[in-house]
Structure formats: C-alpha cells, structure tokens
Protein: methylmalonyl-CoA epimerase
Amino acid sequence: MIGRLNHVAIAVPDLAQAASLYRDTLGAKVSDPVPQPKHGVTVVFVELPNTKIELLHPLGEASPIAGYLERNPSGGIHHVCYEVDDILAARDQMKAKGARVLGDGNPKIGAHNKPVLFLHPKDFLGTLVELEQA
Ligand SMILES: CC[C@@H](C(=O)O)C(=O)SCCNC(=O)CCNC(=O)[C@H](O)C(C)(C)COP(=O)(O)OP(=O)(O)OC[C@H]1O[C@@H](n2cnc3c(N)ncnc32)[C@H](O)[C@@H]1OP(=O)(O)O
Ligand SMILES: [Co+2]
Structure:
C-alpha cells in the first residue's frame, strides 16, 4: 500500500537554530518558517534530492507535538510520511487491520496541499506514521 517516503519530521525546540544547522552546516536547501495553524506546528522544509525533512516546532496552545518535546527536550525524529495512491482506501485498510487512525479519521490538508492522516505510533513499532495522498 505505501509508496515513496515523502518526508521525515524532526521536532525541534529552536526552529532558527535547527534551520541554520541544516542550511549552514549540512548545506541543504531550507525554506523560511511556514506556520500551519490547523496542525499546531510551524514548519521549516528541507529539500533533499530524494525526499524532504520537516523541522517542526509547536504553534498555539494545543500543539500535537508539545508532549513529545516535553519528553524529548532536545528534539528528535517525530514521524515518517509515506505516500499512498488513495488516502481513503488506505484509511479503511488500516482500520480493517486494527491500526488506530488518529483524530476524527477524516484526512486534513497537509503541508503539501494534499490530504494526510496519522496512524498511532504504538501500532507501528513506536513510530508515528503520516500517510499523504500521492
Ligand atoms: C505540517 C503538517 C503535517 C504535514 O503535512 O506534514 C504534519 O506533519 S503535522 C505534524 C504534527 N501533527 C501530528 O503529529 C498529528 C498526529 N499526532 C498526534 O495526534 C499526537 O502527536 C499523538 C501521536 C497522539 C501523541 O500525542 P501525545 O500528546 O504525545 O500523546 P500521549 O502522551 O498519549 O502518547 C501516547 C504514547 O505514544 C508515544 N508517542 C507520542 N508521540 C510519539 C511520536 N511522535 N513517536 C513515537 N511515540 C510517540 C508516547 O510516548 C506515549 O507512549 P507511552 O508513554 O509509552 O504510553
Ligand atoms: Co509531516
């Protein structure tokens, strides 16, 4: 069902410092910060030849990454995102296999203007999984 690795997301306590690390130390192409209020995060996109990195920082009162950063104050890998051809078919397949789809189960529009869903990390080897419509 899953296709390409769309991105790896890293939660960070200091977005400017993280962007500088990827731009100035690693020499990657790095975007300006982009607020994503519907997702409770601000994102810096790092473009790599074969995939992307999302640097995530909490935005607003109820950010879904706040708990993660409390437990991991220096930051860390927060989720991986795989592309799927049909997000609704993927959701139904995951539910049928007993995996927990987070939120109300309806896809939201993600950072790349495509529908996305999240799957509970406890059902996927301790890794939060995002699915994005290809
Ligand atoms: C930018 C837009 C979009 C895109 O298009 O790319 C995004 O990527 S938005 C990114 C942010 N949005 C989300 O992450 C949405 C989905 N996430 C959630 O709903 C929550 O983060 C969560 C997965 C439900 C966890 O929330 P939390 O408050 O931390 O819940 P718990 O404290 O109940 O944690 C339960 C359990 O799971 C472990 N956990 C939590 N987060 C992770 C993680 N990222 N990776 C691995 N494990 C995680 C947590 O440690 C708890 O474990 P136990 O202590 O053993 O119970
Ligand atoms: Co993401």
In short: Residues 7 and 117 are 14 Å apart (CA to CA).
